[in-house]
Write a structure and sequence with these properties.
heterodimer, A: alpha+beta, Beta-Lactamase, 7-stranded antiparallel sheet, 5-stranded antiparallel sheet, 15 helices, about 45% helix, about 20% strand, disordered C terminus, B: alpha/beta, D-Maltodextrin-Binding Protein, domain 2, 2 domains, 5-stranded mixed sheet
């Protein structure tokens, strides 16, 4: 397995791998997402429950301290209204309260202005702690108009008990304090009037201690808020009494915080989230406390809350990546091992294609589709081998036959005269002939020879069929013609004997169309006989070309003792003669159109004054043009004779 | 050697300058409230050395919550004080010889506030209601406004907090737009939960913060006072252009004075104070007291004071306002 194989995107392993990875990764992502969301919700829910419980505990501890304190001014108020206390003994009452309740820093009974005319505008007995002593005094002066203070004014005007907003008390060592005030009524001469306010001052240090103890994860914490949202306790001391949940909402540009604050003021509890200025997420559970006008909030840092989940996610991710790499390697390895025989088979197929039929195919031990393929290849290899062996033998035989045919052709061609001009000593005759076989050997023939000093015999023929049988029949015809012409001089006589000889024992029923002429070169007298051959054309020196008038007769070899009528014609000086086989007139082009007899006449007319050689070459050219490359299907044979009677007196004739 | 001599001369001149300014009598300026963004411009003038550059040795002090800054002027522990126009004019009517040398604020920031779901929806609804109002002054214009509309109300004196209003112990409360109004917001009350009645919308747009000195100081230290006003203006310009830096300085100042320092609140206050002092936009800040404002303030005070001394009649715009800057 090399690198190139791995990244070949068309390879089997790559394609399988990409599909497997796609599905696997999708499944992992889906599973991980579901796991993440589910676990996150689970953790959040656990944190919420934890927060509720935690806040409940703290709230309980705080209420345990504050609620009993509320009872004290309430009892004082009730007792004053019942008129059980003399105004001058009130200091003692306050001192007693402080003695009995070490958690209370100070207590007062602040009367409304002018309740006791003899005491003046102000009357406010007050006891407070100073170190370990309890000190009592009377407050109220132009510099300390206590009825304008929130702790007095608010409960007095609303006629409801009131926990003041916490404050730093300079007298009390700058401790964070809050005052619980209860309004009371007083019976004077004018009747029942609002008498004033009974208060206790509570040092909130213990509250800070309780809340500071709380730690949540690493940096989570709890804090207490006043009614106005002000931080009463906070791990960041600069927040205390300086920042409220509403001002931090502005500072951190987090409107959610304001909503939380407002919800809290409505007395609601909830677990919700918000962001710090740096967009760090926090979870907060908030709930009002039952006393002090205070609320409690516990804060969970999001990152710490979900730290275990994030750690788990990292581990899972690492495992998944490791698993995917392993899967990757395994898939590539398995697929490559499975596909290796395929590659080997492909290589062998190439060798087979190159001709090595014995190239060894890889061994396949498995019993799978690849084994089937290999078996098919073995079978193909064997069949191909046998076929090619057979083909080699056939080809050798064919080549032998072709070679023999080439020899036969040479022999056949050597049988017909092929040196031109054939009779240079006879100026009266100019002659040219041409034979083009469609196959190696053909059935066409022509021949010419002198029977005696004046009698010039010529013939043209076409054996039925083609190939070797036709060529043999042609050879027989030509041989018989020569031997018969030795004995018989008249064309009809020659023809009759030739026919009889060929017809005798002609079991294969072959025949030959044949035209035979004998020209008396001294007179120009032509005698001729035709045995079913295409009529030759006479080309007069003057006047139109025309087919030789003749009787068709039946081809030679078909019927013994057939009488072939003889015709004669007188050649004038300059007349020409043109004979041909049906290979000329029936030359076909690709549209199966025949060359035709009219075309023969046209060409001859056009070239009537040409020498026989030029004439035949012109005819050749016309045929070639007609067939325009279409395969020659029949032998083509042409023979042309020009009669030059005037040259008989020894006028030498120019060679063409 | 030559350059050494030159350096010596420079050093001598520097020391001479330092000893000169050290000999100068310091100029004590008192704000009329505890440290907060309302006085940011003066802090910045000092922080950025504008007073020093003007050759002044300025000391900024703040009176405690229960003391009127005018007392400092009276007992000579401050040379310049920042006061509301109405407070200063009232003092002047009662024979205190102070003069306005620069009017910083241009509009009234006083506003009546009620809960939108409460009984007070319009000015008419003020009738027979309890209205919280500052105990230590600034109460003249709201009271005059209510009187002008023939409304009978119960005035409830308030020291400083908005808690009585929040606890609904009163129906309405007078507030400063740049201060108490935002304290409501920072206590969780949304603007749409409140109705506001701005004094400036009801014909009582009497400007507030201005700088005041004794007539005698004005006569004796005119040049120093002018330098002080110019440098203070520079300080305000700087505060306007460097908002965040100014807020930091204000907060530090507040923390140093152990005053509860809340950034969100001081941001609101500074932005509103700058608006009231006319720093919004590109217009050049002016320190001019408008005669019409003076007369309005005088009217209000005369309506509220039936027992004015005879000398009050002699007070005119020209005797009260002694501008130091030519504008």
């Amino acid at each position: 397995m090399n690198f190139k194989n791995i990244i070949n995107t068309e390879s089997l392993s790559f394609r399988i791998l990409t599909r497997v990875l796609l599905i696997t990764v999708s499944l992992f992502v889906l599973t991980l997402s579901i796991y993440y969301i589910y676990t996150r919700n689970l953790i959040r829910e656990a944190a919420r429950e934890n927060a509720i419980q935690l806040a409940g505990n703290i709230a309980g501890k705080i209420a345990q301290q504050l609620q009993p304190m509320e009872k004290l001014p309430q009892m004082v108020s009730a007792t004053i209204e019942m008129g059980l206390f003399d105004k001058d003994s009130l200091i003692v009452v306050l001192e007693t309260i402080l003695k009995r309740n070490p958690n209370i820093y100070g207590a007062s009974i602040a009367f409304a202005p002018n309740i006791f005319p003899e005491k003046g505008l102000y009357f406010m007995p007050y006891a407070y702690r100073n170190n370990n002593e309890i000190i009592s005094t009377f407050l109220g002066s132009a510099d300390y108009e206590y009825f304008l203070m929130d702790w007095f004014q608010i409960p007095f005007m609303t006629k409801k008990p009131y926990w003041s907003e916490p404050y730093f008390d300079e007298g009390g060592g700058n401790a964070l304090m809050t005052t619980y005030s209860v309004p009371f009524y007083y019976h004077t001469e004018q009747g029942r009037v609002q008498g004033g306010i009974a208060t206790i001052d509570v040092d909130l240090q213990w509250l800070t201690d309780i809340v500071s103890e709380v730690t949540i994860f690493e940096t989570g914490y709890a804090f207490v808020l006043s009614r106005n949202g002000m931080a009463i306790t906070h791990p960041d001391r600069s927040m205390i009494m300086n920042e409220s949940i509403f001002s931090n909402s502005e500072n951190w540009e987090e409107p959610l915080l304001r909503e939380i604050g407002r919800d809290l003021q409505q007395g609601n509890s909830s677990f919700s989230e918000y962001n710090l200025k740096n967009k760090v997420k926090r979870w907060i559970y908030y709930t009002p406390l039952d006393a002090g006008g205070l609320s409690l909030a516990v804060v969970y840092p999001d990152d710490e809350m979900f730290a275990s989940l994030h750690k788990m996610n990292l581990i899972l991710l690492a495992l998944i990546i490791f698993g995917l790499i392993l899967l990757n390697f395994t898939v590539v390895k398995i697929v490559n091992r499975l596909a290796r025989p395929l590659v080997d088979i492909a290589k062998t197929a190439h060798k087979i294609a190159e001709g090595n039929f014995n190239a060894p195919l890889p061994e396949v031990k498995s019993r799978d589709e690849i084994r089937l393929l290999r078996n098919a290849f073995v079978n193909m290899q064997q069949e191909l081998g046998a076929y090619v062996a057979n083909l080699t033998a056939t080809t050798a035989a064919k080549e032998k036959i072709e070679s023999e045919l080439r020899i036969a052709r040479d022999i056949q061609l050597s049988m017909i005269p092929h040196s031109f001009p054939p009779f240079p000593e006879l100026p009266q005759i100019d002659l040219f002939a041409e034979l083009k076989s469609a196959k190696e050997v053909g059935g066409d023939l022509y021949d010419f020879f002198l029977i005696d000093k004046h009698q010039f015999c010529f013939a043209i023929g076409d054996v039925s069929g083609k190939g070797v049988p036709a060529s043999l029949f042609m050879a027989v015809t030509r041989t018989l013609l020569r031997s018969i012409a030795d004995k018989v001089k008249s064309p009809s006589g020659i023809m009759k004997l030739l026919n009889n000889s060929l017809a005798m024992n002609n079991e294969s029923c072959m025949f030959v169309t044949f035209f035979l002429g004998v020209l008396d070169i001294s007179t120009g007298e032509l005698s001729y006989v035709n045995a079913g051959h295409n009529p030759p054309v006479i080309i007069p020196g003057d006047g139109a070309v025309k087919f030789l008038p003749l009787a068709n007769g039946i081809p030679l070899g078909l019927q013994e003792n057939y009488e072939y009528p003889q015709f004669s014609l007188s050649f004038k000086d300059g007349d020409k003669f043109f004979a041909y086989t049906d290979g000329v007139s029936e030359a076909e082009n690709s549209q199966h159109q025949l060359f035709g007899e009219q075309a023969i006449l046209d060409v001859l007319m056009q070239h009537k004054s040409d020498h026989p050689i030029a004439l035949i070459k012109a005819m050749d050219a016309a045929i070639s043009q007609h067939v325009s490359g279409f395969d020659q299907s029949d032998d083509i044979t042409m023979l042309s004779i020009a009669f030059n009677h005037g040259s008989a007196n020894g006028t030498p004739r120019n060679k063409p | 050697m030559k350059s050494n001599r030159f350096q010596l001369i420079i050093l001598f001149l520097l020391f001479a300058g330092l000893s000169l300014s050290a000999q100068q009598k310091p100029l004590v300026f008192s704000t009329h409230w505890l440290p907060q963004a309302q006085f940011a411009g003066y802090y910045m003038a000092q922080e950025k050395g504008y007073y020093k550059d003007a050759g002044l040795d300025v000391i900024i002090k703040h009176p405690p919550a229960n003391l009127n800054a005018i007392n400092y002027l009276q007992d000579g522990s401050a040379d310049i004080v920042s006061l509301f126009l109405i407070t200063a004019l009232d003092a002047r009517l009662h024979d205190f010889d102070l003069v306005n040398i620069a009017q910083m604020s241009e509009h009234s920031a006083v506003v009546f506030v009620s809960f939108a779901d409460g009984p007070v929806q319009t000015l008419k609804d003020f009738d027979n209601k309890k209205i919280g109002i500052w105990e230590g002054g600034f109460d003249e214009s709201p009271k005059t406004m209510v009187k002008h509309h023939n409304l009978k109300v119960e005035w409830v004196p308030i020291l400083s907090s908005v808690n009585l209003f929040l606890m609904k112990g009163i129906d309405l409360m007078t507030m400063m737009w740049y201060n108490e109004y935002n304290q409501l917001y920072l206590s969780g009350i949304n603007p749409d939960e409140l109705n506001t009645f701005s004094l400036s919308d009801y014909g009582f747009d009497i400007p507030e913060d201005g700088l005041y000195v004794k007539e005698a100081t004005y006569q004796d230290r005119k040049a120093e006072l002018q330098a002080f006003v110019e440098a203070s203006l520079k300080g305000w310009q700087y505060a306007n252009q460097n908002f965040d830096e100014t807020i930091d300085i204000v907060l530090n100042k507040m923390r140093a004075s152990k005053v509860s320092a809340n950034e969100a609140h001081q941001r609101w206050m500074l932005s509103k104070i700058l608006e009231f002092q006319g720093f919004s936009g590109d217009q050049e800040k002016k320190t001019q007291l408008m005669k019409v404002d003076f007369q309005k303030a005088l009217e209000v005070l005369k309506e509220n004071n039936t027992d004015l001394p005879a000398t009050a009649k002699e007070i005119t715009f020209e005797t009260f306002y002694k501008p130091l800057l030519i504008e």
